[in-house]
Amino acid sequence: KAIGKSRSMEMTLTGDFMDAEEAAMRGLVSRVVKKEQCVDEALKVAQKICSKSKPITAMAKECVNQAFEMNLQQGLKFERRVFHATFGTEDRKEGMTAFAEKVKAKWTDN
């Protein structure tokens, strides 16, 4: 579904592969880097993700994953429930305060 029926059919019937640039253009990969930069770039992304609140990151990840399994109405309902669940976390309060005060949040992962 991600690449469309016609491209999928062409690749299946011809045995052609997709290069990294086309995969990025179609949104199948988030970025393309040189082979020798791959591990460094992956670690940079991982470090950036790890610098965020773990429970809020997990909730956000679940929202993105569920969005691809639901229709729009179901997805919005799911996201609203998750958003309300964030109000039970200390990190939501910290994040909102840090944003309002224009300072870096100090996550507690609670």
CATH class of the largest domain: Mainly Alpha
Low-confidence stretches are none
Going by CATH, what is the homologous superfamily of the largest domain? Lyase 2-enoyl-coa Hydratase, Chain  A, domain 2
Q: Which strand-content bin applies to the residues?
A: under 5%
Number of spatially distinct domains: 2
Q: Indicate the CATH topology of the largest domain.
A: Lyase 2-enoyl-coa Hydratase, Chain  A, domain 2
Task: State the CATH architecture of the largest domain.
Answer: Orthogonal Bundle
Task: Tally the beta strands.
Answer: 0
Mean pLDDT: 94
The helicity comes to 55-70%
Our measurement of the CA-to-CA distance between the termini, rounded to an integer number of angstroms, reads: 37 Å
The biggest beta sheet is recorded as: none
What is the N-to-C succession of helices and strands?
A: HHHHHH
SSE diagram, text form:
Layout (H helix, E strand, L loop, with lengths): L4 H10 L5 H6 L12 H13 L3 H14 L4 H15 L3 H12 L9
Helix pairs in contact: 4-5
What would you say this structure looks like, in words?
This protein has 110 residues and is an all-alpha fold. It has two domains: 32 residues, no CATH class; 68 residues, Lyase 2-enoyl-coa Hydratase, Chain  A, domain 2 (Orthogonal Bundle). The protein is built from six helices and no strands. It is flat, with a radius of gyration of 19 Å. The relative contact order is 0.08. The model has no long low-confidence stretch (mean pLDDT 94).
